[in-house]
């Protein structure tokens, strides 16, 4: 599905994602961490910590709309991708929409960089 020059890929129904538990899906050979918050909102990011040493994000702990990096305990705002002070950085967030009982992730740029 294309939307404003962005390619969206189906990754399952919302209820396939456990609340506050990250899940990895693959799009274009890249791992995407998907999170469903307790309020039902769904967010997606590259499964790569913004920490200089990297690491997975999907294994992090979700509280409210924040993700706590599983290796470095960085607090990441899932609505913006911004790492909270005193740390700095930004997770690579991807657009998400839910339509017709399906979660769609906008990841067109991943196809060209994978």
TrEMBL record:
Pfam families: Rieske_2. Keywords: 2Fe-2S, Iron, Iron-sulfur, Metal-binding, Nitrate assimilation, Oxidoreductase. The keyword Iron-sulfur applies. Residues 8-105 form the Rieske domain. PROSITE patterns: NIRD (PS51300), RIESKE (PS51296). CDD domains: Rieske_NirD_small_Bacillus. SUPFAM superfamilies: ISP domain. InterPro entries: Rieske-like_NirD, Rieske_2Fe-2S, Rieske_2Fe-2S_sf. This is Nitrite reductase (NAD(P)H) small subunit. It comes from Paenibacillus haidiansis. The lineage of its organism: Bacteria, Bacillati, Bacillota, Bacilli, Bacillales.
């Amino acid at each position: 599905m294309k939307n404003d020059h962005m390619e969206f890929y189906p990754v399952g129904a919302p209820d396939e994602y456990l609340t506050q538990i990250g899940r990895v899906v693959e799009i274009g050979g890249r791992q995407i961490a998907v999170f469903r918050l307790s309020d039902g909102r769904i967010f997606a990011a590259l499964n790569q910590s913004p920490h200089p040493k990297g690491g997975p994000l999907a294994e992090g702990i979700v509280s409210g709309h924040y993700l706590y990096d599983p290796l470095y305990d960085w607090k990441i705002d899932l609505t913006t991708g911004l790492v909270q002070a005193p740390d700095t950085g930004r997770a690579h967030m991807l657009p998400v929409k839910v339509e017709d009982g399906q979660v769609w992730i906008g990841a067109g740029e991943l196809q060209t960089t994978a």
